[in-house]
């Protein structure tokens, strides 16, 4: 060994002795031929792990350069990357011959790339299959110029995974085909939630080193994960991946050519003999005569041959004995999952178990409860067996040595797994004990984690969060399962670790068991997760107790949250109870469960009397709109049905499927009328009939590359026209109201309009160009499009946005943007109004006005992904279909008004002792007055002809005032609602109004640039003129000696007025930009202004000079507030950032802000519109897209309350800082009460 390498070993000796496990490393070194079996035995004879490590290093120091490199490679393979780094700089150089002979040419750099990507290591004994390897590699090289993938398929146990992994163990192949690295993802046959976990893991791996904020949050659904993986793979790895086995994931992610490589069911005789020879350290031609018979009995299975080889390594004189064991064929499977011959495997497994010590046989039997394709950390088995971790690892090493178990060394601590066939054997052998074995695991978990649950930060504990409910269900421990899953603590821990999707799946998966205890509670937890899942995906992780306090008071979720909130409040934590929350049932008119599986599409008949639905269960179903009564059910296709459509006369329904077929059915007879020719080569995503019966046509669109949009005459078996233009999958198609045009939405980022008569492309709209972050490779997928009722606008959905385009000019008219953490799945325009229904990935349906770009309502209730929304032909009903297997029917008007709670944000609030009075306009332009914590309505005015833009209430609560867009001001009596006075004088919109303390004077400001001071009982008024731009607001100062008013405007000035005389006292040019807010200190010595020029200024009320200029905000400074002790000023900007400044010297004290932007691309969900300090100046409350409470001392967030809508205008706070009132953008009223410690 070179002196440099030897010195490095000696320098690192102490560190290596402390950390390595020699037995793991020596397996690789023996395979490399640098260590003999005798040397291995001598090292293992040492009593402790550290002494074994020291002995191995002593052996190494007496060897050559190849031993040093073999030791280095073993460290990498066993995930001792940190220790390998100690040796890397002193690696000796080998001759080319030595390099080729070493470890089959797998260099340390290649091994490092494969280990990082999770590619499985070679088996302990490995023989190459050159012809098969060359075939796989040849197919991979063909992907350099052709998009697609390679599928390696064959019988169970034939070595597919080993060969797939070996194929990429090649430096040249990695350099040319996988320049960004190889990432291995094991999928197998798993539930949707487990599939999501695997996809999240792959996303995490691919996102390493990227700065994208989106990468901080794992995808919360399989569909979102597909989109994320598609984005990541196309960006980082333009060439497509290798697929081992038949993976449903990759087929969904990539479009292109599939190259198939079949793996023979068994090894040929020579290769099998080579494996046996390696196990017994001999030569194939020198093996005893029984060797060929053993190979024959093993049917060439690499797994069975390895099991026998491991036995012969330990008992080299038992060739005849193990041959007889294989020939017994005493095991008969009760059921077989395939045509694979299990008998040889069963005999080999039985023989391997017989040589284990009795107590180890019992431990191995416990592995019967493992799941296929799930790797279990040693720590879990340590809990199960109640043994020290080191003892467990020694036992597992024995199982690995005997090929009874496999070890994943790509992650530390190591994870262990069984081959599917081995697990089948164990389950068959222990079928009567399975429930007891599951129960044993649960009991051991309860014993080990009796005091506190596993830490979500411990990667070893992920197994418990994923599979504990599974083991409880399999053990029949229903009471334990209830206790676990009806616990808010469990929900918090698991959601924090794995997100909400896996949790929701648990409530569905084990719903039958949970419903025996309490179906209502199960639904309450499931609904809580579905409505708040998008919040639970955010980082930092939200306070789940606060989220749960928004649940109905009758909910078990709310009951547990309130108990925890009271307990924590007694220790100084802040929690808010939404005391006026709506306890009514869901606003959906009807909930139907038409399918066992996801409902991909549902649509109304043309007369609105029937609904047709289809989905993952391959069935078409028709039922009555009024009652949900089933009229027709057909098993219509061989695979998922993706869409269905009524003909214009409602006599027929067309269906299309991922089986590439289009079919036409009679609604009356339920019979197949026609199966159209299979002209699409990929799955058909959407189908739609023309709207009128003048010329009936059916349009279909698919994932085909060129012929992806077709028109069919229902009376002919072949297509009438093919529309060319898109080069990527077309996801949706729809006819214009007059059937003159067909709109197609594609993954190429465009919407195209085709003339139906000629099938020629008329217009193309590049939707992708409205996403500046997109690049040429990763287009914004356009999910769907819909026409306005008059056909003048086309509306389309892509990512988290909906765009409205003018059909004639192709100009973008407006954009509606939803949460950055959501994607729009579908949209549909109401046929007789400007309402647009939008289906979002966070289980919600939203209603928007596409004329004004304003959100009007939210429809909550679905428990999973919403695939489709559609209005009825008359617009009175709205349906939505979902992955939760339901269709919900909503009354458009009821949802539109009720979910908005009929209120607008232009509100005023009066607090009196423990009571609260709220005045606000509603969506029908009436003035409402509500009182009490429940928000009971005192009166509603008549509908006004001009929109109400501001309101206020007198301090004695006897009168309310309102200002309108026409400039009229009204004063009404409370509680009668009688109009006391109508005041005219303003010529444009009245933006703000306020009573003086005595209630006799009313002050108003207007778009007409004036402020008016009214003696409202008599109608007398003063006009305060001087501003050149609209006066949006003013600040009233009342005391016994003087009445002053500060007004500010977009003209950049603040003016100070004497209210009694109407005289301007000061005219201050404060900012170059518009003045957006102003506040006066409680001692009246100072006032502050903020502006669109991104600055705040503090002024002296004595000298009227600026005393402080506050710079640092990066956007318009929207709001400001002095603390009650006048020592601080808080300012908030349009980027969502809040800054706290010292009023002594203008120093920046704290920045109150999240670490990263939220789902609305802001630090506060939008503009910071209002700020209020607590009386003791220790807490600051702010409004933006939601409400936040901050510690003034530390700048840290104390609590967050997420409203249903966003864009809050103001927060009204009681004098004792215990009650908070606001109205959100969709009109929901929130009366929040601080939770006190102890019982309520």
Write up what this structure looks like.
The protein is of the alpha+beta class and 1240 residues long. Helices cover 28% and strands 28% of the residues. The protein is globular, with a radius of gyration of 36 Å. The termini are far apart.
| Main sheet: strands, sense, barrel | 4 strands, antiparallel
Q: Portion of residues in helices?
A: 25-40%
Overall outline: globular
DSSP strand content: 25-35%
Question: What structural class results from the helix and strand content?
Answer: alpha+beta
Radius of gyration: 36 Å
User: Termini separation (Å)?
Assistant: 77 Å
Low-confidence stretches: 95-104, 211-216, 238-255, 332-340
The side-by-side strand order for the widest beta sheet comes to 7-66-65-64
Query: What's the β-strand tally?
Result: 66
Number of helices: 33
Mean pLDDT level:
85
Outline the fold blueprint.
Layout (H helix, E strand, L loop, with lengths): L2 H9 L1 H7 L2 H10 L5 H8 L4 H13 L3 H13 L3 H8 L7 H6 L6 H9 L13 H13 L5 E7 L5 H8 L3 H7 L14 H16 L14 H15 L5 E3 L3 H6 L3 E7 L5 H11 L10 H8 L4 H13 L4 H10 L14 H12 L3 H8 L10 E2 H8 L3 H13 L4 E3 L6 E3 L2 H10 L4 H15 L13 H14 L2 H8 L2 H11 L1 H10 L1 H26 L7 H5 L7 H14 L6 E3 L9 E5 L6 E6 L5 E6 L3 E6 L5 E6 L5 E6 L5 E6 L4 E5 L5 E4 L8 E6 L8 E5 L6 E4 L6 E4 L7 E6 L5 E6 L3 E6 L5 E6 L15 E6 L5 E6 L2 E6 L5 E6 L6 E6 L5 E6 L4 E5 L4 E6 L6 E6 L5 E6 L4 E5 H7 L9 E5 L2 E7 L5 E5 L4 E5 L7 E6 L5 E6 L4 E5 L5 E5 L6 E6 L5 E6 L4 E5 L4 E5 ...
Helix pairs in contact: 2-5, 3-4, 3-6, 4-5, 6-7, 6-9, 10-11, 13-14, 13-29, 16-17, 16-18, 17-19, 18-20, 19-20, 22-23, 25-26, 26-27, 27-30, 28-29, 29-30
Subcellular location: Cytoplasm
Main location: cytoplasm
Organism: Cyprinus carpio (Common carp)
């Amino acid at each position: 060994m070179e002196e440099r390498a030897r010195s490095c070993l000696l320098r690192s000796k102490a560190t290596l002795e402390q950390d390595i496990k020699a037995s793991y490393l020596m397996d690789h070194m023996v395979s490399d031929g640098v260590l003999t079996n005798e040397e291995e035995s001598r090292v293992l004879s040492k009593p402790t792990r550290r002494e074994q490590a020291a002995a191995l290093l002593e052996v190494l120091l007496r060897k050559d350069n190849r031993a040093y490199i073999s030791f280095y490679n073993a460290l990498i393979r066993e995930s001792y990357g940190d220790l390998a780094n100690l040796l890397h700089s002193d690696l000796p150089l080998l001759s080319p011959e030595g390099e080729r002979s070493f470890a089959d040419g797998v260099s340390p750099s290649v091994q490092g790339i494969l280990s990082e990507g999770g590619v499985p290591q070679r088996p302990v004994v490995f023989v190459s299959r050159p012809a098969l390897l060359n075939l796989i590699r040849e197919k991979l090289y063909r992907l350099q110029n052709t998009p697609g993938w390679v599928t390696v398929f064959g019988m169970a146990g034939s070595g597919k995974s080993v060969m797939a992994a070996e194929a990429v163990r090649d430096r040249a192949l990695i350099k040319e085909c996988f320049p960004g690295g190889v990432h291995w993802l094991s999928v197998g046959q798993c539930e949707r939630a487990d599939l999501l976990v695997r996809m999240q893991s792959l996303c995490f791996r691919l996102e390493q080193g990227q700065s994208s904020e989106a990468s901080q949050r794992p995808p919360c659904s399989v569909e979102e994960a597909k989109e994320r993986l598609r984005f990541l793979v196309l960006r980082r790895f333009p060439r497509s991946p290798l697929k081992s086995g038949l993976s449903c994931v990759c087929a969904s992610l990539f479009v292109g050519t599939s190259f198939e490589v079949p793996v023979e069911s068994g090894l040929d005789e020579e290769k099998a003999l080579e494996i046996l020879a390696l196990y017994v350290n001999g030569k194939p031609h020198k093996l005893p005569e029984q060797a060929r018979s053993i190979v024959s009995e093993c049917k060439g299975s690499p797994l069975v041959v390895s099991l026998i080889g491991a036995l012969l390594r330990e008992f080299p004189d038992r060739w005849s004995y193990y041959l007889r064991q294989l020939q017994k064929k005493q095991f008969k499977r009760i059921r077989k999952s395939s045509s694979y011959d299990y008998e040889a495997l069963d005999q080999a497994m039985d023989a391997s178990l017989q040589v284990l010590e009795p107590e180890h046989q019992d431990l191995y039997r416990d592995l019967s409860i493992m799941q296929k394709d799930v790797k279990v950390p040693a720590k879990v088995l340590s809990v199960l067996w109640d043994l020290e971790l080191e003892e467990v690892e020694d036992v597992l090493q024995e199982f690995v040595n005997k090929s009874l178990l496999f070890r994943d060394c790509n992650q530390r601590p190591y994870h262990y797994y069984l081959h599917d066939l081995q697990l089948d054997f164990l389950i068959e052998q222990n079928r009567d004990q399975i429930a007891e074995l599951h129960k044993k695991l649960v009991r051991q978990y309860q014993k080990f984690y009796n005091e506190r649950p596993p830490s979500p930060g411990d990667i070893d504990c992920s197994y418990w969060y994923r599979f504990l409910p599974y083991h409880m269900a399999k053990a029949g421990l229903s009471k334990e399962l209830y206790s676990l899953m009806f616990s808010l603590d469990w929900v918090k821990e698991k959601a924090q670790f794995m997100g909400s999707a896996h949790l929701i799946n648990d409530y569905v998966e084990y719903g039958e068991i949970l419903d025996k205890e309490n179906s209502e509670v199960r639904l309450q937890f499931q609904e809580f997760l579905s409505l708040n899942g998008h919040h639970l995906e955010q980082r930092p992780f939200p306070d789940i107790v606060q989220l749960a306090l928004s649940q109905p008071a009758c909910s078990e979720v709310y009951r547990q949250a309130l108990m925890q909130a009271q307990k924590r409040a007694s220790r100084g934590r802040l929690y808010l109870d939404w005391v006026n929350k709506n306890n009514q049932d869901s606003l959906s008119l009807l909930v139907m469960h038409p399918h066992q599986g996801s409902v991909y599409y549902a649509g109304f008949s043309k007369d609105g009397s029937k609904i047709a639905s289809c989905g993952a269960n391959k069935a078409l179903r028709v039922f009555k709109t009024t009652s949900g009564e089933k009229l027709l059910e057909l098993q219509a296709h061989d695979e998922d049905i993706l869409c269905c459509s009524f003909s214009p006369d409602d006599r027929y329904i067309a269906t299309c499927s991922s089986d590439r077929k289009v079919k036409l059915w009679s609604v009356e007879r339920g019979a197949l009328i026609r199966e159209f020719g299979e002209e699409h080569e990929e799955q058909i995503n959407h189908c739609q009939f023309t709207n009128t019966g003048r010329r009936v046509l059916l349009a279909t669109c698919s994932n085909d590359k060129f012929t992806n949009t077709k028109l069919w005459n229902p009376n002919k078996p072949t297509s009438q026209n093919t529309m060319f233009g898109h080069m990527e999958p077309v996801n949706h198609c729809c006819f214009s109201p007059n059937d003159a045009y067909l709109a197609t939405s594609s993954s190429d980022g465009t919407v195209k309009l085709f003339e139906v008569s000629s099938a020629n492309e008329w217009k193309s709209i590049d939707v992708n160009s409205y996403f500046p972050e997109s690049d040429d490779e990763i287009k914004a997928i356009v999910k769907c499009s819909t026409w306005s009722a008059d056909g003048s606008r086309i509306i389309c959905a892509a990512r988290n946005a909906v765009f409205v385009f003018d059909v004639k000019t192709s100009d973008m008219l407006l954009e509606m943007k939803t949460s950055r953490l959501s994607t729009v799945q579908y949209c549909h325009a109401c046929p007789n109004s400007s309402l647009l229904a939008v289906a979002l990935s966070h289980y919600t349906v939203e209603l928007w006005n596409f004329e004004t770009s304003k959100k009007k309502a939210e429809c909550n209730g679905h428990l999973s992904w919403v695939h489709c929304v559609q209005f009825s032909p008359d617009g009175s009903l709205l349906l939505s279909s979902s992955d939760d297997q339901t269709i919900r029917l909503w009354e458009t008007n009821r949802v539109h008004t009720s979910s908005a709670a009929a209120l607008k944000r232009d509100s005023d609030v009066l607090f009196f002792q423990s009571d609260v009075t709220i005045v606000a306009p509603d969506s029908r332009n009436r003035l409402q007055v509500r009182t009490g914590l429940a928000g009971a309505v005192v009166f509603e005015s008549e509908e006004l002809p001009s929109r109400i833009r501001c309101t206020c209430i007198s301090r004695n609560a006897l009168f309310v005032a309102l200002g309108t867009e026409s400039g009229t001001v009204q004063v009404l009596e409370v509680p009668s609602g009688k109009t006391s006075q109508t005041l005219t004088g303003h010529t444009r919109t009245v933006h703000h109004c306020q009573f003086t303390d005595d209630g006799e004077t009313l002050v108003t400001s207007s778009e007409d640039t004036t402020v008016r001071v009214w003696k409202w009982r008599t109608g007398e008024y003063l006009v305060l003129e001087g501003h050149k731009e609209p006066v949006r607001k003013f600040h009233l100062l009342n005391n016994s000696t003087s009445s002053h008013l500060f007004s500010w405007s977009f003209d950049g000035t603040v003016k100070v007025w004497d209210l009694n005389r109407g005289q301007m006292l000061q005219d201050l040019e404060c900012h170059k930009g518009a003045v957006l807010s102003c506040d006066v200190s409680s001692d009246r010595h100072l006032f502050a202004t903020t502006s669109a020029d991104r600055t705040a200024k503090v002024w002296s009320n004595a000298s009227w000079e600026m005393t402080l200029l506050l710079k640092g905000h990066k956007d318009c400074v929207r709001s400001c507030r002095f603390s009650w002790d006048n020592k601080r000023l808080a300012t908030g900007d349009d980027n969502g950032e809040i800054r706290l400044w010292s009023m002594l010297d203008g120093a920046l004290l704290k920045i109150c802000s999240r670490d990263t932007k939220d789902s609305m691309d802001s630090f506060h969900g939008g503009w910071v519109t209002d700020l209020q300090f607590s009386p003791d100046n220790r807490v600051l409350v702010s409004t933006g897209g939601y409400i936040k409470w901050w510690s003034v001392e530390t700048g840290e967030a104390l609590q967050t309350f997420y409203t249903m809508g966003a864009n809050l205008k103001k927060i009204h706070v009681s004098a004792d800082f215990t009650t908070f009132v606001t109205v959100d953008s969709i009109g929901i009223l929130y009366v929040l009460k601080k939770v006190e410690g102890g019982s309520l």
